[in-house]
Amino acid sequence: MSSPQPERHLPHAAPAAGQNTGPLSDAVIRAAVENAIEEAKRHGASPHGVIGSASPVAQPGRPAMSQRATDASVMMITAGFLSLCVGIAGSAVLYFSGTANPVVVGLLCAAPPAAFLSVRGLMKGLKRLIPDQIHNHYEGTVYQDQRNVRTSTRGVWAKTNNQQ
Questions:
Q1: Can you give the pLDDT of all 164 residues of the chain as single tens digits?
Q2: Among 2, 33, 94, 160, who pairs with 100 as Cys (CB 3.0-4.6 Å)?
Q3: pTM to 2 decimals?
Q4: What residue ranges do the domains of the chain occupy?
Q5: β-pair partners for 89
Q6: 99 CB contacts (<8 Å, ≥6 apart)?
């Protein structure tokens, strides 16, 4: 005959009917739940569970960067690869043509930076031509007076006339 198994009490089990739960245990449970909710809020709404309160540790590999820094580094890596491809293609053309004219090589090397700088200057000039956007937010009755004043100053003894 087997002896009956002792009843196991798990710490997370609900109290049985008729068992008295002390007010201290309810307060402790309530505080623990509120603490877990605050920790989850502090760590963001990520789907990963909050584990411990240790600060994050740098992982091996690429260091953590902002999205802008990541985009810039990818752009630099891509530009370096593309310049390598252009250099290899130019070298192959010069090698297989049998002659390399120094003037032509100089023009080929100077053309990409010159084109970039001219396009950059054009974009800066166009940016200055675009007017600034003005956003006004008003509440209540507002009277807005926008006038154009033409000023002309002429003569040795200058006299200024402002006309609306």
A1: 455 555 554 555 555 555 555 666 778 888 888 888 877 777 665 555 556 677 777 777 777 778 888 888 899 999 999 988 888 887 788 778 777 777 777 777 788 788 888 888 888 888 788 877 888 888 888 887 777 777 777 777 777 767 66
A2: 94
A3: 0.29
A4: 69-128
A5: none
A6: none
